[in-house]
Specification:
Elements lengths: L14 H16 L1 H5 L4 E7 L4 E5 L8 E8 L7 E7 L3 E6 L7 E7 L1
Antiparallel strand pairs: 1-6, 2-5, 3-6, 4-5
Length: about 110
């Protein structure tokens, strides 16, 4: 059973706002279980040092998927990968070039 979102209170002459709020509350309450199923999405940037960087992210789970992209190239570029994801801890981003110093954007889903 879902917990209903409480209705708004109304000031004199503002019943339209109240009606709209309550309609939205009804919809959100009805679909609350589906909304809670949306996975967590976190993002950030990290700078490679000698082609690797560890990212601390305590909300990382066993099914987390990490997407990476180069934001600002640095050093000798290589292919980026995420070889290690540790639940409750974070993940490692590496380059196939141990002299890459790029700034890498990452997005963790789930």
């Amino acid at each position: 059973m879902t917990t209903p979102i409480p209705p708004d209170t109304v000031a004199a002459g503002q019943t339209g706002h109240l009606d709209a709020h309550n309609a939205i509350s009804d919809i959100l309450t009805q679909f609350q279980s589906q909304l809670s199923a949306i996975p967590n999405i976190r993002s950030g940037t990290a700078t490679l040092v000698a082609g690797t960087v560890s990212v601390s992210l305590s909300s990382t789970g066993s099914s987390t998927v990490v997407l990476v992209s180069r934001q600002a190239p640095g050093g000798t570029l290589g292919s980026l990968s995420v070889p290690t994801i540790t639940a409750g801890s974070g993940f490692t981003i590496t380059s196939s070039s141990n002299s890459e110093t790029s700034v890498v954007g990452w997005t963790a889903v789930g």
